[in-house]
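Handoff note, outgoing to incoming analyst
You'll be picking up this chain. Sequence as last confirmed:
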Amino acid sequence: MNTQLYRTIWISDLHIGSTQCQADVLLDFLKHNDSEKLYLVGDIIDFWALSKKVYWPASHNTVIQKLLRKARHGTQIIYVPGNHDENVRDYDNHIFGDIMVKNSDVHTTADGKKFLIVHGDEYDTIAKYHAWVAKLGSKGYDMLIEINRFLRAFRRLLGIQSNFSLAAYIKFKVKNAVQFISDYENSIISTLKNEQLDGVICGHIHHAEIKEIDNFLYVNTGDFVESCTAIVEHDDGSLHLIRWESLGDEKAHLTELLN
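Most recent structure output, in case you need it:
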C-alpha cells in the first residue's frame, strides 16, 4: 500500500499506556499516511491508566518513536492535551522533540476556513465539574473495552467482522448517553458564535463525526481505542473522516466517509 499524503491529519484519544490503545492499527495508520501538519488532539498518553498500573509494551514505545521521527523529518506536529494527559497542559507553547504543545489552536484550511482545535473535555460538564464521576465512568468504560477485546477475537474465529464495539453499541442504546453526546456537541458550538470561526475540531467522546450545527461545522476525530478514526484535510481544504481497519492478514484498508 502506498503512502497517502494529506495537508493536515487530526488524531485523538490514542490512550497510549493503557490496554485500550490499538497500537498496531495506529502504527499501520501512521506508516501509510503522512501530512504537512499533524494534530494530536488530546488523551494521547493515558496518565490516568499509568497511575493505576504501568503498562507500556514495545508497540507503545514504537508509536512515540514514530511520531518523533515524523516531527524530525519535517511534519509540523501540534499536541493539544486532553483530560487523561492534562499534566501536559502545564507546558503550553513549549516544544518537546520538535513537537509543539498548545492547549488550543486555530487552524486555517486551504480554502480559508478557520477551526478551533481543542480536545473537548472543557465543554464536558461531568469531566469539568465532577472529575470523580468521570473517572468512575472511565473504569466502567475500561471494563467494556476489555470485554470487547475478547468479543472481537471470538467474532474473528467465527468469520464475523471484527470491528464491532460493545462500548459504542451500549453508548447508543442508552438514552442518557445519546443526550450527553448531543449536549456536548451543542456546548462546543455555542462557544463559537461570538468568534470569527467556521467550526471546531475536537475529540474526547470517542464518537467520530462531521456535521453542520447552526451553520458551524462540528468535527470529531473519534479515537484509536474503538473505531480507529482520523480526520484529514485534502489540498483543496475539504475535510473527511477516515476509518483505518486491521484485516486478518495484518494489512489494513481505508474506508473514507465523506461529510
